[in-house]
Amino acid sequence: MSIFLDETTKVVYQGLTGSTGRYYGLLNREYGTQVVAGTHPKKAGTDVEGIPIYASVADAKEATGATASCVFVPPVAVKGAVMEAAEAGLELIVVITEGVPAHDEAWFYNKLKADYPGTRLLGPNCPGIISPGKANIGITAGHIAKAGGPVGVVSRSGTLTYQAVFELQQKDIGVTTSVGIGGDPVPGTSFIDCLEAFEADPETKAIMMIGEIGGSAEEEAADYIKSSVTKPVVSYVAGVTAPPGKKMGHAGAIVSGGKGTAAAKMDALRDAGVQVGLNPTEAGDLMADIVASL
Amino acid sequence: MPTPPPRQTEDHVDLFEYQGKEFFAEYGMPISPGKIAFTVDEAVAAAEELGTPVMVKAQVHTGGRGKAGGVKFAPDMDAVREHATNILGLDIKGHIVGRVWIEKASDIAEEYYASFTLDRSAKKHLGMLSKEGGVEIETVAEENPDAIAKIWVDPVVGLSEQAVRDWVAAARLPEAAVEGSVDILQKLYTAYTVGDADLVEINPLILTPEGKVHVLDAKVTLDGSSEFRHPDYEQYDATQTRDEREAAAHEKGLQYVGLEGSVGVIANGAGLAMSTVDVVNQVGGKPANFLDIGGGANADVMAGALEVINNDPSVKAIFINIFGGITRGEEVAEGIIEAMKRVSIDSPIVVRLDGTNAQEGRDMLAPHLTDRLMMEPTMLSAAEKAVALAGN
User: Fold this and answer.
1) What is the value of ipTM here, to two decimals?
2) pTM of the predicted structure, to 2 decimals
3) Any chain B CB within 8 A of the CB of A107?
4) Does residue B113 carry a catalytic annotation?
5) Is there a contact between A253 and B255 (Cβ–Cβ < 8 Å)?
């Protein structure tokens, strides 16, 4: 099994008619994802390489039975796109768009929690989700992941997600699902949501969790692992050697006053029984040992 | 094949105190009259216009101005001249004072603290209010946490007047300060949300002997991602504090942090860039920088990144670590080839390329490989090669 996404998931692409949305929508279809529709308020009735365009997500859902959406619209339109997908009753909304204002994120996160609890939001500013061999939503290069498990991957950073599944592929280790939760201040799906789902997924036997400096998501995940995860977890926290007080790109990745440092996060994770690698390759080696002993 | 647009760099925009006060004033909060001055003569002219006594306040993007001698009371014009002379050019924690804010002095009966920011754990807005203002709130939080009244605001629900009244009561502000505080705190929340701020902080919020509540200092950080609905925020770009290398990188839309070493690092994505810095350190090298070219970077962006790195004289080798997702291998390769044509790159380059269209990229680079441009199959081997080339 996989989590959140499999070969039966039907996906509508919001922003399929834009250059980026089109490029990755078609790549996702090529991978095997059921890319059933795109939306554009003024281009209903047209198509992108055979993928029909509807005026709204609701129309697309009615016509195609779509259950998930992938959002490629510009930052200014993300809030509207997320609400449109939630109101249409989709189960999964994956927002790839980067540069969404934090206040918009905080708003639609809480709006979905309150009014659309059945909708899972992933992102914004995330690479998406791939269940290798089944389906791929987002911008991950499909060929870097080996299908079939037994490892579930969750990561805050897009490129490190790729690095992690690629390291596993190089060691001939498969992945059930790899989830990029994104590095923004208010991610729709958290480490804990993914840990919970991987714990419940019988095909996932071990979990790779890639964190980074800043915030307290890794510490919270460590608490959750301690109390509720029985499967082995391997982790790597990027920014081990980042100088304190320096902002390293992501809104999230700020180290200040001893809080949110890689050292603090690694300590919390080790304390929860997690094996911690000091770089992605070392984390891959640790996971290979675990998989070999399964 | 269409090229994705270069990513919008995500940024925090720090305001100077006077910019923060002007920002607050737009939302109807009471601030003192004042003027900005870049020279001693301008400071004196400002004080003459405002009338003494005034405060002379250094404008820098760092705390601890008072302790460093950057905030002075001037009862008369001679004092204004003296303080402005001393403060302009002053070094406060590495920030050289280039401008002073001359403000009509206020009588203070009491000092409070108020702020809003995002609580990333709770995923709600967090308001903090304390009757112990005027000092570092971190100190209050450590020594007397009960002195800070906290309120979590659901952005969908918003902040009602009654919630603010309860919050002010919880902070045990004196009766005389209640009405004024309730008014200012509601406006502060509006400024925070409508203005797309990451942080709004008033420290101190004062009560005057006449019983007026008043904003005496302002610390504001805006969310650069919101510029599409606040085109006026562009004005603050000129007053951000960046070192020369960082400023050059910012111009090209790159996320750059200067470090001390000799291995220039270029990677896509903040996570991979941090990880690259980690790996360079772990194989015994010293990274010269963190540079994230972002998602969807095209050939131009890669060429720009190489130029930025090339301008850093301490760089002895360059490590380009790309794992393509939304960034494509052939664009990366084109950028490297383009940059090497455009400028003479002083240091040898080691490239590691995987992910989307990596093979296309590698094939494009293959005919250009020399002892100045090398390719390595893994992140670790590429780091080792770059560190060896840098000679440390």
Assistant:
1) 0.91
2) 0.91
3) yes
4) yes
5) no
